[in-house]
Specification:
Elements (H helix, E strand, L loop, with lengths): L1 H4 L2 H11 L15 E5 L2 E4 L4 E4 L12 H13 L9 H11 L8 E5 L2 H16 L3 E5 L8 H4 L3 H7 L6 E4 L16 H18 L4 E7 L14 H11 L3 E5 L26 E4 L10 E5 L1 H8 L13 H16 L2 H22 L13 E2 L1 E3 L5 E3 L8 H30 L16 H7 L3
Parallel strand pairs: 3-11, 5-6, 5-7, 7-8, 8-9
Antiparallel strand pairs: 1-2, 2-3, 4-10, 9-10, 12-13
The chain binds pyridoxal-5'-phosphate (PLP).
The site of pyridoxal-5'-phosphate has 15 residues, from helix 5.
Subunit structure: Homotetramer.
Keywords: Lyase, Pyridoxal phosphate
Cofactor: pyridoxal 5'-phosphate
Length: about 450
Amino acid sequence: MAADTRAKAVTLDLRRRLLSSSCRLFFPEDPVKIIRGQGQYLYDEQGREYLDCINNVAHVGHCHPTVVQAAHEQNLVLNTNSRYLHDNIVDYAQRLSETLPEQLSVFYFLNSGSEANDLALRLARQYTGHQDVVVLDHAYHGHLSSLIDISPYKFRNLGGQKEWVHVAPLPDTYRGPYREDHPNPAEAYANEVKHVISSAQEKGRKIAAFFAESLPSVSGQIIPPAGYFSQVAEHIRRAGGLFVADEIQVGFGRIGKHFWAFQLEGEDFVPDIVTMGKSIGNGHPVACMATTQAVSRAFEATGVEYFNTFGGNPVSCAVGLAVLDVLKTEQLQAHATNVGSFLLEHLSQQKAKHPIIGDVRLKENYILLSTDGPGRNILKFKPPMCFSVDNAQHVVAKLDDILTDMEEKVRSCETLRIKHPPGKPDLAPPPPADPQHFNLYLLD
Ligand SMILES: Cc1ncc(COP(=O)(O)O)c(C=O)c1O
């Protein structure tokens, strides 16, 4: 293929000329040109192999043969919209329903997570007759105008919080106002939501929905205290609103113990709407919104057709079904539990060994890893589910090397610290010429 033989610099130049600079590249200082993927590995134009730790979309592995084959076979026969009867769409809805509480029994198919969240917002507004939304701070729910409005992660940079949007603090027991030593952080954070609702109501506002990722990931992979979401759901429902669980990043067996992250709250906890995307198509644009009969009926009662040209087409559904098959046959959920426990144990040892954790990137070691969170100081692992114990061992060893190296650099910064104004040594800005120093100031 001609495109694959193009020199990296030429591709970069073409991209700079033809694409908007708002479409950012990973590692902008030295972007990687990836031309092939397999399992948990990506390969650049020189054939160099990278371990992919930032891909929760290639859920069951890049170019998984079963998924590729399913798309190919269906493409050979038919691809069209969902206005014709076809088995794939009903089979896929049926299979998804088996993973969810029985109340979530109506499915809408779409092409992206953003579309799923936007539709969730429409349904919530239709069902409740209310307009307003409560969201968690630093959240991101998609790139459509409606979703930028409910994504503090984005709208804070755009300088505008809409009057119908209300922001509650992140239930972060590590850095937030109520920490692990608080007697009941779940209740304390849920009361914050209650307070946000009351303040909105005092201004005459009415709540349509609470949107949250079941494990807020864009905000820095927060694990809310147990019981938080159940209490929030009570407050929201009392205000007449719906609970929307955004599982676009964190769902689909990724957390190991459960198929959906909201299930961490216990069997009795059932959101009113669940949105899914990213991983469910293993790279093919597939998304879904599941809700209850009651919520769906209110939407249907408008008489306005829900039509989505590509959503739920036979190829997308064949892909979705194949991803579910692979998850099952390769027992990837149990595998995620094993590898996750291994990583947790070994990273905990690193925590004990290294007093610093910061903005670490491993690209130079052929490991693709990213950071997230308000301070961009959370090291986020989201590899394909076939990521192995050996891969985990390799990452931990590299991380150990990097942290050791960083600690040495911190020690060599001591002389610079002494020069900072008395009384405010840690607030002084880092020397601008050396970006390494800035990274060190991201430490918490
Ligand atoms: C939590 C969450 N919700 C929604 C979206 C939007 O999904 P998409 O990019 O498929 O539109 C994203 C994308 O990053 C996301 O992380």
